[in-house]
UniProtKB/TrEMBL annotation:
Keywords: Transferase. It comes from the Bacteria. Pfam families: Acetyltransf_1. GO terms for molecular function: acyltransferase activity, transferring groups other than amino-acyl groups. Residues 1-197 form the N-acetyltransferase domain. This is Acetyltransferase (GNAT) family protein.
Length: 197
């Protein structure tokens, strides 16, 4: 397995990895009628606006990725201006039956996407990392994270934060081993952060 920069031909595979890790690290394929909806939130805008901060685990095909943003408020502004409006046209309210995960993520398209100002003041960058089972347990997650941290540092971001669901205990333990500390915690999950060096 190798780690390499994202290439545009990877896009569909990264959307698929997002779906296949979208249930607290487990496979969410059966939970969505639209297999691209989760990736439209957590993959697409990162590849569009920060492709230089996207890295892929490759073992002949993409097996994991990390996606980063150096300036979260600036990213949120460009998404609100350019990324979310076409998706709101594609997915009007009521596109999916109430109570489904698809409906919940359509609703998110119409909600504010603003990170906590107190967190981004100290941890302006943020990231998403997802690995398929075949890439786990081999040190690739750590190597992928170190690659992004170095790139964020070189881009001038002093610190980075991330969000993780409360049920994803394996990921929480991994982040703690990577030096992330809990910044905010709720019953649904937590926000964690660390310096980029």
């Amino acid at each position: 397995m190798t780690i390499r920069p994202y290439e545009p031909a990877d896009t569909d595979a990264l959307y698929d990895i997002c779906l296949r890790t979208g249930d607290n690290g487990g496979d969410a394929t059966g939970q969505f009628a639209d297999p691209r909806l989760l990736g439209e939130h957590f993959v697409g805008p990162y590849l569009r606006y920060e492709p230089d901060l996207a890295f892929v685990i490759d073992d002949g095909a993409p097996a994991g990725y990390v996606l980063g943003v150096r300036d979260t408020p600036a990213f949120e502004r460009v998404c609100e201006r350019e990324w979310w409006p076409p998706l709101r046209e594609k997915y009007p309210p009521g596109s999916f039956p109430a109570g489904t995960r698809d409906a919940a993520y359509v609703q998110r398209l119409y909600e504010s996407h603003t990170a906590d100002p107190e967190i981004v003041a100290k941890y302006p960058a943020h990231l998403h990392i997802d690995l398929l089972p075949r890439a786990q347990g081999q040190g690739m997650g750590r190597a992928l994270m170190e690659r992004l941290l170095a790139a964020l540092h070189a881009a001038g971001a002093p610190a980075v934060h991330l969000g993780v669901g409360a049920g994803n205990t394996r990921a929480i333990a991994f982040y703690e081993r990577m030096g992330f500390q809990t910044l905010y915690q709720s019953p649904n999950g937590r926000t964690m952060g660390r310096p980029t060096t």
